[in-house]
Structure formats: C-alpha cells, structure tokens
Design a protein that fits this description.
By secondary structure, the protein is α+β, with helices and mostly antiparallel strands. The protein has a single domain (about 5-114), classed as TATA-Binding Protein (2-Layer Sandwich), CATH 3.30.310. Helices cover about 20% and strands about 45% of the residues. The protein has helices spanning about 35-45, 85-95, 95-100; strands spanning about 5-10, 15-20, 25, 45-50, 55-60, 65-70, 75-85, 105, 110-114. A 7-stranded antiparallel beta sheet has the order 4-5-6-7-1-8-9, covered by helices on one side. It has a two-stranded antiparallel ribbon with strand order 2-3. The longest helix is centred in the middle third of the chain and has 11 residues, at about 35-45.
Length: about 110
C-alpha cells in the first residue's frame, strides 16, 4: 500500500502566498517567533538533522520539518512533509494559541488561521 505525503506550511498571518519556481513562497514583514520551532520539535518528537543555507531540518519516522530563516536568523516560515495520517498531529500541535498567535497553517488548497 502506497502512503501519500502532504505539504504543510506555517507562515505569519496574512503573508502573501505565491507558487514560485522553487515551490511555495511566503512574503511578510512579520516573522514567526523562534519558540514555534522549538515547541514543534518537542511536541512532535523531532530530531535535528542538519542546517544549511538558512534552513534547519528536523525529522522523525513520519514527519520532516524545515525551518526557513531570513538573513537576520529570524523564522520566515516552517515547512512540513508528512504522511497524511499525521496531519492531525500537526493540527493538534498548532492549537496552542499562546505559541501560535500571529501564525497560520497553510495546506495547499486549504488554509486555517490561529
């Protein structure tokens, strides 16, 4: 049985979303708090893999997460690649309003604000 993966993004609320040459791009003057990435690593049980070119990569057996940093080392957006059966875990993690204030989850074809 083939399992399908889904892309999920977290970006600042109101960020413009455009599909570019290299995938989805999010533009906003706002940044996400660093605490969002730290919280997701703990909540989802992710392990640090590597950091390169302003991207921090974390993974477990079901989810890959990439944190995209700007030139000032601030969090621009977060990208997940997850098996569909684990989308509910990501949604559940994002329900903490204290951590996710000012952020929105974006799944291509679908969008939810927090």
């Amino acid at each position: 049985m083939k399992r399908s993966c889904q892309a999920v993004f977290i970006a600042p609320t109101g960020a413009s979303k455009v599909i570019g040459d290299y995938g989805w791009e999010f533009n906003s003057l706002e940044r996400l708090p660093e605490s969002i990435g730290e919280y997701l690593v703990r909540y989802l049980g992710l392990k640090f893999e590597e950091e390169y070119a302003g991207i921090k990569k974390y993974t477990n057996s079901q989810i890959n997460m990439s944190i995209f940093l700007d030139g000032n080392n601030e969090v621009e957006s977060i990208y997940f690649q997850a098996f569909e059966s684990f989308l509910a875990e990501i949604y559940k993690a994002c329900q903490n309003e204290a951590v996710f204030s000012g952020a929105e989850i974006f799944i291509p074809e679908e969008m939810k604000s927090f």
